[in-house]
Design a protein that fits this description.
Number of domains: 2
Structural class: alpha+beta
CATH superfamily of the largest domain: Formiminotransferase, N-terminal subdomain
Helix content: 25-40%
Number of helices: 10
Oligomer: single chain
CATH class of the largest domain: Alpha Beta
Strand content: 15-25%
């Protein structure tokens, strides 16, 4: 493939194995596309898929996945810890190799139009594809979630970028956009008090005056009865993972709470983890480009 584009669609289903397996089958059915990873979380009731492909293939697989989700996920029956507004909640396109962010923006708009034209699902464009500054932040776009979206769409500034001011009755509304790679990074706490996770999330996220490239919320993992600080790190070099991890550890101590683990959802750039290793091992004068064996093998 001359151009490689990544797509990381998020679906509002993390429990029904039949539906999840159906999404996997669709993801593997389009030529020129590879399914790199998929993960599902029952507490979040959400699945995240990571695909790479050429320009034509990645557009086709994104549409087919949204179509399958709209036919098999009923948002009127959906509950979960993660905020959501549609059967396919979000579809980001990410430049990987020999492709520009501008090209991904163009792809996102083509896919968004097709979804609305053929499936009658309204679309918000977000991140670098956003039609207005207020739509760049996914949290602002998704505020109100599925249940509150019908009223939100009546507000003057919240007409969909594609479609009418009415959600699809069962598939809701979807955000489509283009962005640079991010890391979905979650930190688990040894408490069942969701208020503590929410307080910490407000401190570390950019919108609360925290770290510039961090988006964070508190969620409850019902199957483990623990609270979690769930984050999207939209620029892991601007704000590395270890910085938010250590701040969460520091803030949790005031409540007598400890970190019991963390997790990466989906795939992550290797450098995001190497930066953490360099920090915790206190490696001096480390050169990521020259001292990582795999970098030599891949070049």
């Amino acid at each position: 493939m001359a151009k490689i584009i990544e797509c990381v669609p998020n679906f509002s289903e993390g429990k029904n194995e039949e539906v999840i397996n159906g999404l996997v089958s669709v993801a593997k059915s389009v030529g020129g596309v590879t399914l790199l990873d998929h993960s599902s979380d029952k507490s979040h009731n959400r699945s995240v898929f990571t695909l790479v492909g050429d320009e034509d293939g990645i557009q086709e697989v994104a549409f087919q996945l949204v179509k399958y989700a709209s036919e098999n996920i009923d948002m009127t029956k959906h509950t979960g810890e993660h905020p959501r507004m549609g059967a396919t909640d979000v579809v980001p396109f990410i430049p990987i190799k020999d492709v520009t962010l501008e090209e991904c923006i163009d792809i996102s708009k083509k896919v968004a139009k097709r979804i609305n034209d053929e499936l009658d699902i309204p679309i918000f464009l977000y991140e670098e594809s956003a039609s207005a500054p207020t739509r760049k932040n996914l949290a602002k776009v998704r505020k109100g979630q599925f249940e509150g979206m019908p009223e939100k769409l009546k507000e003057e500034e919240w007409a969909p970028d594609f479609g009418e001011r009415a959600i699809h009755p069962t598939a809701g509304i979807t955000a489509v956009g283009a962005r640079m790679p991010l890391v979905a990074f979650n930190v688990n706490l040894d408490t069942d008090n969701i208020d503590i996770a929410n307080k910490i999330a407000r401190i570390i996220r950019a919108s609360g005056g925290g770290f510039k490239y961090c988006k964070g919320i508190g969620v409850m993992l019902e199957d483990r009865n623990i609270a979690q600080v769930s984050m999207n790190m939209v620029n892991f070099e601007g704000t590395p993972l270890y910085r938010t991890f250590e701040t969460i550890r520091f803030e949790a101590k005031r409540y007598g709470v400890n970190i019991i683990g963390s997790e990466i959802i989906g795939l992550t750039p290797a450098k995001a983890l190497i930066d953490c290793a360099e920090y915790y091992l206190q490696v001096e004068d480390f050169d990521y480009g020259k001292q990582v064996l795999e970098n030599h093998l891949l070049n």
